[in-house]
Amino acid sequence: MTLKNKKILIIIGGGIAAYKSLDLIRLLKKNHVEVRTILTKSGREFVTPLSLSTLTKSKTFENIFDSESEAEIDHIALSRWADIILVIPTTANFMSKLSLGKAEDLATTVLLAADKDIILVPAMNVRMWLHKATQSNLKILQDFGYLFIGPEKGEMACGEFGEGKMSSPRQIFSYLKNYFDKKNIVKERNLKALVTAGPTREYIDPIRYISNESSGKQGYEIAIALSKLGIKTTLITGPSKLAPPKGIKVKKIISADEMLNEVKKTLPVDLAVCTAAVADFKPAEKSKNKIKKKKLNFKSINFIKNSDILDFLSKNNRNRPQIVAGFSAETKNVIKNSTQKMKDKNCDLIFANDVSKKEIGFNSDFNKVSMIDQKGNIKILPKNKKSFIANKIAQILLDKLFDDRNIN
């Protein structure tokens, strides 16, 4: 895989590390990448439009209203032209602007109007990077979907040492190559995934049912994140108030049996992620009519086990997905119980979360999960919005799929 003919829009920020953008452009052009640049007002203090235009063999854009491009809306045209957008260096001030959604110049307007992935390459003093305001902005931008390269630890222009040093042009180039390699492989292999989400309802009669508090939020976000990676994704969801995600095939079900049937119809897939809170049991019999209170004997309702969808997928010898991941909603002994669940089901990964805590449990917009693999390794994804957690999980799953298939 190569970067040949890829289109990269580079926004030059106002920091001493801006001069490294010239080396990156040389490296990209050497590998036949089409490059266009936007030079910010502060970036102009460190590099010139002439040097950028000479290297890119293209016009350097600076102003949102350009008399030489009256027929072209640059902030739209540039973002649509690019395959990816890179901001180098990304200063603390620029991160602050983006976290507030500002569109006060060509650079910020392009980023706000972009429909492509945006990569930020931070460079600043270690204290600025570690400041609570910058770290807060980092979380906001990650939740917005911005990608980050670095920063690294090292000696800075100011003479101090620590985290905040901009990644080198070689490191940035390697990241870009890996990014496009994965995109190409996903497209060429036509990778597919299924995600189960939400609760199920097990009816006692036409009115009464057994269910749980699952909103489906985490599963919906994972389906969206996988789809953004180019994976053809099917979302199989129980009753939820959430709007169906655009561009994703959605299958709506009510009961656990219906969910299992749709899962079977969706196979084969490369990835399966079971986030649904499937009811463990159901009434042995469902009354055709509403059971009157006088006739309702609470001691006589018999229950039977529901089919275990995660177990079915993990032990399906015929159509087993390459990677099967499950979710384990626990209220105590979270790691212990989840590890045992992974072993019992024979899934590849389990994502454990503590639903006893309302701020990260059912119906919350936030989550905190512990990823456990078959080797017993545990990786904690700290509390963050479920959309951010979903992006991390999607990348973990894709990386594992590539590792297991020995894709380079």
Report on the architecture of this protein.
The chain has helices spanning 20-30, 49-56, 74-81, 92-99, 106-113, 126-130, 132-144, 169-189, 217-228, 256-266, 309-314, 334-345, 386-404, and strands at 7-12, 34-39, 60-61, 84-90, 118-122, 147-148, 152-155, 161-165, 192-197, 202-203, 209-210, 232-237, 249-252, 271-274, 281-283, 303-305, 323-330, 349-354, 366-373, 378-385. Helices cover 35% and strands 24% of the residues. The termini are close together. The chain has 408 residues and is α/β, with parallel strands linked by helices. The protein contains 13 helices and 20 strands. An 8-stranded mixed beta sheet has the order 13-12-9-14-17-18-19-20, sandwiched between helices. It has a 6-stranded parallel beta sheet with strand order 3-2-1-4-5-6, with helices on both faces. The chain has 2 domains: 7-185, Flavin prenyltransferase-like (Rossmann fold, 3-Layer(aba) Sandwich); 190-404, CoaB-like (Rossmann fold), CATH 3.40.50.10300.
Short key terms for the protein model shown above:
408 residues, alpha/beta, Rossmann fold, 2 domains, eight-stranded mixed beta sheet, 13 helices, 35% helix
What is the fold's blueprint, element by element?
Layout: E1 7-12, H1 20-30, E2 34-39, H2 49-56, E3 60-61, H3 74-81, E4 84-90, H4 92-99, H5 106-113, E5 118-122, H6 126-130, H7 132-144, E6 147-148, E7 152-155, E8 161-165, H8 169-189, E9 192-197, E10 202-203, E11 209-210, H9 217-228, E12 232-237, E13 249-252, H10 256-266, E14 271-274, E15 281-283, E16 303-305, H11 309-314, E17 323-330, H12 334-345, E18 349-354, E19 366-373, E20 378-385, H13 386-404
Parallel strand pairs: 1-2, 1-4, 2-3, 4-5, 5-6, 9-12, 9-14, 12-13, 14-17, 17-18
Antiparallel strand pairs: 7-8, 10-11, 15-16, 18-19, 19-20
Helix pairs in contact: 1-2, 1-8, 3-5, 4-7, 9-13
